[in-house]
Design a protein that fits this description.
Residues 123-243 form the GFO/IDH/MocA-like oxidoreductase domain. Helix content is 34%, strand content 22%. The chain has 334 residues and is an alpha/beta fold.
Length: 334
């Protein structure tokens, strides 16, 4: 992912806004290879973030480490007066996420999470469609994610790999699209026969949201033969009609256009265009949004105090799968 971030920093909207002064990795050979691949000849290599920050005047830390390392990295960066943009998920536990938010408040700095799926044309258009009221009152949101992903590396041994490492994207996008709060969840987590993952790589979840919205998620990272988009396939139902999105270019909506017949007649309606094209370039847009917030000293859209709500959905789903019980997602002050 570090390579992906560096590519995003070289996008026109970000080029020249950040100077990379160091690449920190416990495996310095990996850092050296990254430096060479991106011609970052001025970037120093280190295997210790605290030591590097002690010796250099740094404004930002981009945390692209594995989830287990998240809290230590963010707290170290905040303790050195840096703003931080971190990979998803926000943390490997809710305890760590809350500690990160507390440390951010104490430091008076900005910490945000890369939820690059929010910066997708389809997601932005669906949010605009929901806000327009064209579908009426939203009653249901349903999404499918089925991909046979052979990563190798840490994900193959990671617990709750689908929910924690991937479903966080879908849950966060659902929250954003609906503009509603998650209230409760029932989830079943499994590791299907033939899975190449050590732990559960599939999940089915039912979420209750505010405004009487029900959302369902069906997902697997070991489903071969008919991959969905990485963005999932979506169905959003309102009192007036339904919107479908295949996660790529297929985005359509129909509303009821008459009051007679067993099946009421339907009429296609236009999905609003992207409100701001600059917000549709994934990681590049996410990073630009973060840099804008840092410069203006305002809260980014994916600030940790908000993004923890998406993480709460993940851990509530994990708890539900563990206990085979419906789990409440209590709103807390973070």
């Amino acid at each position: 992912m570090a390579a992906g971030w560096l590519k995003a920093l070289d996008a026109p909207m970000n080029r020249g806004r950040v100077k990379i002064t160091g690449l920190i990795d416990t495996n310095t050979s990996a850092a050296e290879a990254l430096r060479d691949a991106f011609a970052l000849s001025d970037a120093e290599i280190s295997d210790n973030l605290a030591t590097f920050l002690d010796a250099h005047d740094v404004d930002l830390v981009f945390d692209v480490a594995i989830p287990a390392a998240r809290r230590a990295i963010v707290e170290t960066a905040l303790g050195h007066g840096c703003d931080v943009l971190t990979e998803k998920p926000m943390a490997a536990s809710l305890e760590d996420a809350r500690a990160i938010n507390a440390a951010t408040e104490r430091a008076g700095r900005i910490h945000a999470v890369v939820q690059n799926r929010r910066f997708n044309a389809g997601v932005r258009r669906i949010r605009a469609m929901v806000e327009s009221g064209a579908l009426g009152q939203i009653t249901g949101l349903h999404c499918d994610f089925f991909i046979g992903a052979h990563f190798g590396g840490f994900r193959d041994e990671m617990e709750h790999v689908l929910l924690l490492d991937m479903a966080i994207h879908t849950f966060d996008a659902a929250r954003f699209m609906l503009g509603a709060d998650p209230l409760a969840v029932y989830c079943l987590e499994t590791n299907p026969a033939g899975s190449w993952y050590a732990h559960d790589a599939a999940a089915n979840a039912i979420f209750e949201f505010s405004d009487d919205i029900v959302a369902t998620y069906r997902g697997s990272w070991c489903a071969e033969g008919a991959n969905t988009s990485w963005e999932s396939a979506w169905r959003i139902i309102g009192t007036k009609g339904t919107l479908l999105w295949d996660g790529e270019d297929g985005l359509s909506a129909n509303v009821v256009a008459g009051d007679e017949g067993f099946f009421r007649p339907l009429a296609a309606v236009d999905v609003p265009p992207v409100p701001d094209e600059a917000q549709t370039h994934g990681h590049a847009s996410m990073i630009a949004h973060f840099l804008d917030a840092v410069e203006a000293r305002t809260a980014p859209e994916t600030v940790g105090t908000d993004n923890i709500r998406s993480l709460e959905m993940v851990f509530a789903a994990i708890e539900s799968a563990r206990t085979r019980q419906r789990v409440l997602i209590a709103r807390q002050e973070h």
